[in-house]
């Protein structure tokens, strides 16, 4: 009887709300991938070394996919906040303290504006009135891609505070090796600065070094993060201290 009670008291699995947020994280990135890859055609990115007429023709060719795919992404864009929040949840459980968790959430939240939303707005604006002058569409073409692939500072700060939090953590919430993958994210962000200079080649926004290596590293980061969070959540028990104490009104 006592062993059964003990087993019940230390039930493994984590709270339901965190599990819901975890699956919302996974679903958001799945929808995001479909929207930017198969519909919006932002990944792989179109060529930067095109003329204004070619950029306008590209928008005309992919008008339906951009309008539908990016329209859906505007609806689910709040999933980015949920995704940042669950990572912040685990960071707050680290012994490195909550300040780094708040820093991660803030940096990713600010970075989502130029690194995600601006692309959607620019390309939806370009396809909203196809009769705009090619020069205007050309500007929206460049602005969308440069903001999407070239918004660097906020994400660099986010990955840096995440790596620091993992290194200083003594609760073993995330494995130490994941901090090194986060550092590689910083490296790819720094290298990506060159896309603001080159319009063709390995350092352009569709280049092997500035884009495709970054995509591989980011894909690895996400592929590792999902099982890491799942394992950390499963490791929580009914005896795991709550992040916030419940206030009982009298």
TrEMBL record:
Superkingdom field: Bacteria
Q: Which residues cross the membrane?
A: 20-40, 68-87, 99-126, 146-168, 177-197, 209-228
Q: Which UniProt keywords apply?
A: Membrane, Transmembrane, Transmembrane helix
Name it: Uncharacterized protein
